[in-house]
From TrEMBL, chains A, B:
Record protein name field: Tryptophan synthase beta chain
Its EC number(s): 4.2.1.20
Subunit structure comment from the entry: Tetramer of two alpha and two beta chains.
Organism: Formimonas warabiya
Cofactor(s) of this protein: pyridoxal 5'-phosphate
Record-stated family: Belongs to the TrpB family.
Keyword match Cytoplasm: no
Enzyme class name: lyase
Keyword annotations: Amino-acid biosynthesis, Aromatic amino acid biosynthesis, Lyase, Pyridoxal phosphate, Tryptophan biosynthesis
The encoding gene: trpB
Classification via HAMAP family: Trp_synth_beta
Catalytic activity: (1S,2R)-1-C-(indol-3-yl)glycerol 3-phosphate + L-serine = D-glyceraldehyde 3-phosphate + L-tryptophan + H2O
């Protein structure tokens, strides 16, 4: 038998996780309760029932350490899971680092990112609850694609409000959703009150994620057969994504490794949580491990924001959550990592950062793309611009290990591929990418509009 | 342990093939020798040495049954191999067929198709031979992408002549190659004699694959540091692709299955050969198995062509090969499966078809895309338009099994994904796809220009 170097760590079907991990069972301080935007009182489950099925509401609040993954969901996960865990031998050599670099690659599934890990169970629980149709928003299109495919698997209708500027700039993401039977509307649309109001104010509005959320929530709340689905931020979404870290742990065990540091890019927080939370379980048990959330310098929610109650959307329709925020009115510069352009962060991630459990770092576009190109040329995979932030984070750790002369083990999440993002790589390679920083003044302005909650 | 259905068949590193399979050791009639286009005499190895390294020339003619895969190539294969072998449970249910359908998915690698299986060994052997630079042509961009990545792995320069119409229509394929450090020129270009001549005749020429081949061959022949690389047709290319079928055989063995029929789409023939030749080895040994090559009705080389000596390119620079051909001047209609628009077919595939060892079938665009959409909605993967032909072939076999009331086992090669082909799906879903048939009259005209070889 040959003893060739193999970068992949394989799991058998029997070794696949059968439960998701719920960090609320272990974290020292739970997130503050959500607030009803209408009453400004703590949010009860009944307020959520208009747009979510009961099983997902239960998952939103449960403090059980493990939640069973339904058989039907496990079977669909197995269309592409376990996701590859790779030892980046060629990258290590290129960086001339004593560090061992592992990456968990979530881009092999049909939608090209980690989002399918939660869209499948969300569609499943809605189907079980008798729902016929799901409504959602999408910006760059990753989440809309993932929900479209999941709805197609379960025979649900899918209504996607796609931010108008993306609708026109990324026609193939729209095609992807339509291929899977979804109805895609450019937001603001004529289909909702919120959309019509926006069009009245500005017929040429390019839309925003906040507005698209408002349209999708209104759609779901106004129809009995329809629920709403969200692709990040909420506890149940993050619960589903822990399959990433749970698999990674088992894969690393098989090669007798344990990471010194776990790295993920962080927008709403579901990818970072997915890769890191199962390891934080060990940290709460006393094991030494670091977790680093990597943000864009243009939208440094954790790194530069405040920890406060805020709305999740510009139209103030969503529950008010205690989180790090740059203010719900903050408009981040138009960087290429669209999935990281969110003013807030998951309450779970926010609480952990507030408690000092996790670290954050922020990078500008050019240094992120520079790392992505080196990664592509050595490992062969073109990272999504979002995922490229984690690549850059891993580079920094690998070079720190080299300076310290230490053999550290680094694990990062390569949350998606960049096949749909060549316009961004073109801009980078052509020297046309700007290192736009966030505007501190506009954050200060935006933070004045935080809701006042006791 | 749960007994959930798992569609994937996993191979361990130790079970990976370490040799390629060479069908020339087993086939009853070898292909006729190639002819030198200059002298019209049989082609000697010396004529090939101007553009190929000796190891590849040896592989072109060897009759050894197995050829060792170099360790460096095996290690790079392992970045994504073994490619998934999937049981299409959800598709079987949708087709309501008693057939078991398996597909081998070659789209998980960074370039998204099976082409990387041969670009890596080609770059390796050229590097070993001291070559610094490879030149090639590309149409839709799959092959150029695969060679660019392989050159990047081995530190070779890569020069790609990309058919001008694709260069402008598929800018992201160009970006992909540039990201991996390749130089990409729109063909016809000013860089070669053949290109300049074409531009003189028609400054607005959109180019053709035949012309791009002429440019790449001229580039390679005129520089000592440069060789040429071809992505299909030749024996050594097909040898490398047998890794697809060799893995599939081992994977099927693990679930105690053996196919009644093996299906691949067929342009130049490397994908069809890759999946089917290792099974044909058994057929030569007396085992009952069918192999079906699926062609587009717009370019039905095997189905409707003649078995004769012909040039591989329009400029008549390449060796003259005995193969099924529609004539080197035949211009197929502009269908969306660009990779299947080739007037000829591999001499190995041609000989096997001539001998009755394999079968062929041809389908039109709309029926192919209809099958692709059903496949996408059930299995979740969007097939490349080329690969969709194999999907349609598998549908036909599955429905035949249903009519016969027989439980047949079907294996097909899903040679690549369609992430770069949403314009085609858009056209199909919008009802804008034409079922263009090939023109029998233009084939007759083109066949008049076959070279006359004794």
């Amino acid at each position: 038998m040959s003893k060739l170097r193999d970068p992949k760590v394989i799991l058998s079907a029997e070794e696949m996780p059968t439960q998701w991990y719920n960090i609320m069972a272990d974290m020292p301080n739970l997130p503050a309760p959500g607030i009803n935007p209408g009453t400004l009182e703590p949010l009860g489950p009944e307020a959520l029932q208009a747009i979510f099925p009961m099983e997902l509401i239960k998952q939103e609040v449960t403090q059980e350490r493990f939640v069973e993954i339904p058989d039907e969901v496990q079977e669909l996960y197995r269309l592409w899971r376990p996701a590859p865990l790779m030892r980046a031998y060629r990258l290590e050599k290129a960086l001339d680092t004593p560090a061992k670099i592992f990456y968990k690659y979530e881009g092999t599934n049909p939608t090209g990112s980690h989002k399918l890990n939660t869209s499948i169970p969300q569609a499943y629980y809605n189907k079980q609850a008798g729902i016929k149709r799901l409504a959602t928003e999408t910006g760059a299109g990753q989440w809309g694609s993932a929900l479209s495919l999941a709805c197609s698997f379960f025979g649900l209708e899918c209504m996607v409000y796609m931010v108008k500027v993306s609708y026109h700039q990324k026609p193939y993401r729209r095609s992807f959703m339509e291929l899977f039977g979804a109805q895609v509307a450019a937001s603001p649309s004529n289909l909702t009150e919120a959309g019509r109001r926006a069009l009245e104010e500005d017929p040429d509005s390019l839309g925003s994620l906040g507005l698209a959320i408002s349209e999708a929530v209104e759609d779901a709340a106004s129809r009995d057969d329809t629920n709403y689905a969200l692709g990040s931020v909420l506890n149940h979404v993050i619960l589903h994504q822990t399959v990433i870290g749970l698999e990674s742990k088992k894969q690393l065990e098989k090669v007798d490794e344990y990471p010194d540091v776990v790295i993920g890019c962080c927008g709403g927080g579901s990818n970072f949580s997915g890769i890191s939370f199962p390891f934080l379980a060990d940290k709460f048990g006393g094991r030494k491990i670091r977790a680093v959330a990597v943000e864009p310098a243009a939208c440094p929610t954790l790194t530069k924001g405040v920890f406060a109650y805020d709305f999740g959307d510009t139209a103030k329709l969503t529950p008010i959550l205690k989180m790090y925020t740059l203010g719900h009115d903050f408009m981040p510069p138009g960087i290429h990592a669209g999935g990281l352009r969110y003013h807030g962060a998951s309450p779970l991630v926010s609480q952990l950062y507030h408690d000092g459990t996790i670290e954050t770092v922020a990078y500008t576009q050019n240094e992120v793309f520079e790392a992505a190109v080196t990664f592509a040329r050595t490992e062969g995979i073109v990272p999504a611009p979002e995922s490229a932030h984690a690549v850059k984070g891993a580079f920094a750790e690998a070079l720190a290990a080299k300076e310290a002369g230490e053999e550290r083990t680094i694990l990062f999440s390569l949350s998606g591929h960049g096949y749909f993002d060549f316009a961004s790589y073109d801009a980078y390679l052509g020297g046309k990418l700007e290192d736009i920083a966030y505007s501190s003044a506009s954050v200060q302005e935006s933070l004045k509009k935080l809701p006042s909650i006791k």
